[in-house]
Amino acid sequence: MNMQTHRPWPWFFLAFAVLAADQAAKSAIDAATPLGWCHPITSFFNLVHVLNPGAAFSFLAGAGGWQRWFFLGIAIMASVWLIWMLRQPRPRSESLAFSLILGGALGNAFDRAVRGHVIDYLDFHLVGKHWPAFNVADIAITLGAACLVFVSFIAARPPQQKA
Fold first, then answer.
1. Which of 77, 101, 85 lies closest to 4 in space, CA to CA?
2. What does this protein do (predicted)?
3. CA dist., res. 151 & res. 80, Å (int)
4. I need a surface site. Which of 50, 54, 135, 145 has the fewest CB within 10 A?
5. 132 Cβ partners below 8 Å, 6+ apart?
6. Burial of 163 from C-beta contacts in 10 A (0-12 / 13-18 / 19+)
7. Is residue 114 packed enough to be buried (19+ CB in 10 Å), middle (13-18) or exposed (0-12)?
8. In a structure prediction context, what are the per-residue pLDDT tens digits for the chain, which is 163 residues long?
9. 120 is annotated as an active-site residue
């Protein structure tokens, strides 16, 4: 097991880079395009400008406003836990996953705190069916979670027998 010891700063820097990239993209979309804007890029992908006051897949988007503070609270608690986890010696693959999730959580938390909603702008579709629009923060959270799942399968695999 390749453990990272007393060096959490590179992982914090990666989380900050994800946060910065996410906010730069959202700010560019917000400044350059009107709400509801849609620009086809390919036959299956559009750049859009939509707002999501809910969570993943617009969960609780129409809940009346309380969900902003609820999801912001969850993001803050998760971020504190992830920062604590990144300060502990752990395998690099876990640190990578935690830092991606941290950067994404902070990116969407910033949106909820400052804007009141999350800006989404990546829209994939096929045969008239659209995947919910998403952003860089969502990508980082998904990649981090996938990395944790992958690592858990590798860790659970029995060691290979030598012949």
1. 85
2. This protein specifically catalyzes the removal of signal peptides from prolipoproteins.
3. 22
4. 145
5. 52, 56, 57, 58, 120
6. exposed
7. exposed
8. 455 456 889 999 999 999 999 999 999 999 999 999 999 999 999 999 999 865 555 555 554 556 667 778 888 999 999 999 999 998 999 999 999 999 999 999 999 889 888 899 999 999 888 888 999 999 999 999 999 999 988 876 666 666 5
9. yes
Quick one: tokens of 148? 């944790």
- Determine if the pTM surpasses 0.85: no
Contact 106, 81 (CB under 8 A): no
AA identity, residue 99: S
Residue 22 annotated in active site: no
Structure tokens at 102: 């941290």
The catalytic position among 22, 111, 123, 138 is 138
Nearest Cα neighbor of 25 from 118, 114, 135 is: 135
149: CB partners within 8 A, 6+ apart: none
User: First vs last Cα of the chain: how many Å apart?
Assistant: 23
Task: Report in angstroms the alpha-carbon separations of 157 from 11, 77, 153, 163.
Answer: 27, 32, 6, 18
Q: Which position has the token pair 């992908």?
A: 45
